[in-house]
Structure formats: C-alpha cells, structure tokens
Amino acid sequence: MTISRADITGVVLAGGQGRRMGNVDKGFVELDGRPLVAHVIERFAPQVHALIINANQNAGRYAAFGFPVVADAIGGFAGPLAGLHAGLTAATTPFVATCPCDSPFLPTDLVTRLSGAFDAQPIDIAVARTFAQPHPVFALARRSLLPHLAQFLGAGGRKIDAWYASLPITEVAFDDDADAFRNINTPAELAASATPAH
C-alpha cells in the first residue's frame, strides 16, 4: 500500500510534566531563542496533511501556533500512549504520526521513511530506530488502532513498549541520522544543544 501525505495527521506530543527539566512545560523551553515546540512544528508540519498538538497545560499558548490542541482523555499525565489516544481520537485521516515536543532536530524525512515500511509487510505501526535503540514516540500508526489502544489504557496499561508488543510492528532504521532523535530533557542537554554564539 502507498500512504500519501494526505493520509496522515501529525501529533506533537506535549502532554508531559517536564519533571527532569524542573517541572516546566518542555514545549516552551527555548533553544536558540525559540520554543522547542516551534522547532518541532517547523520540521514536522510539512511532512503531514494536518497537525494536532497534544497538551495538558498551556493550551492557549500552544493554540497560538495555529493548530488544534487536544488534551489527554485519560487523566493524570498518563504518558505518550494517552497522547496517541487523544491524537487518534481527534484525527480524521487513516494514519497518525507522532513525535515529541522536545526533539527539535527530528528528521525532515521521518514520515516518508516510516510510511514506506507499510509497503513491505502488513503492519499496524512503524517506529523509528537508531542502531539498537528504538524510539517509540517517533511512530506512524493506523487510526483503526484506536479501540485496541482504548481497551489497553482502560485496563490500566501505560507502557508504550507493552502495547506495541501486542501488535504487528516494524522498526525503521535511521542509523544515518541518529543525532536527529536527540531529545532535550534536562537543562544540561539544552545547553549542549544550543548553537554556539559567534
């Protein structure tokens, strides 16, 4: 099957609490003078037909970027699966691609390469991987998985790896672009990622 850009809604996962960053909303931590989420949107939005931001706080600030903002339907900052659930619920396209708000260097061909994996075999999700390290929040999933995910979350499941393990999934190698998946969780990582002043 060939998946076109028109088939895909992008979901920026910004629903966490940013505990390792000092309990701040990571999407608005600034890198080179711009919020992390602005860097992500700039690279991610051109790859998808529509974009949704999943956020559980500062909805008005996120909405200022011009995209719909959806909160988790499951309370308690339940993690990326709750964000995916919110995205799958809000999307109208057959596929949803996800990326986190704290990865400002994500590949500009992320979605194209993930969607190509669906050509090779019948799968429900494609996940990015660099060398031996999968990156489960960089994924392309069928929207038809929503009832399955809702059931998993309703039974108390929260771990993304556990849910993926129950599905036909493939990992797509990005070994050539491993640095693109750096995420920024701490002030030290933020400082290390800033462009040096000239």
SSE arrangement, N to C = EEEHEHEHEHEEHHEH
- The share of residues in extended strands comes to 15-25%
Query: Count the strands?
Result: 9
The residue ranges in which pLDDT falls below 50 over 5 or more consecutive positions are none
How would you describe the shape? globular
> Strand order of the main beta sheet, please?
5-4-1-6-8-7-9
- The helicity comes to 25-40%
Give the radius of gyration: 16 Å
Count of DSSP helices? Answer: 7
State the end-to-end CA separation. Answer: 48 Å
Class computed from helices, strands and strand pairing: alpha/beta
Mean pLDDT: 92
Biggest sheet character: 7 strands, mixed
In short:
The protein is built from 7 helices and 9 strands, in the order βββαβαβαβαββααβα. It is an alpha/beta fold and 198 residues long.
Could you please describe the fold and organization of this structure?
This protein has helices at 36-44, 59-63, 80-90, 110-120, 146-154, 160-164, 187-193, and strands at 8-14, 30-31, 34-35, 50-55, 69-70, 95-100, 125-130, 133-142, 169-173. It is globular, with a radius of gyration of 16 Å. It has a seven-stranded mixed beta sheet with strand order 5-4-1-6-8-7-9, with helices on both faces. Strands 2-3 form a two-stranded antiparallel ribbon. Strand 7 (125-130) and strand 8 form a beta hairpin. It has seven helices and nine strands; from the N terminus they run βββαβαβαβαββααβα. The mean pLDDT is 92. It is of the alpha/beta class and 198 residues long. The relative contact order is 0.19. The termini are far apart.
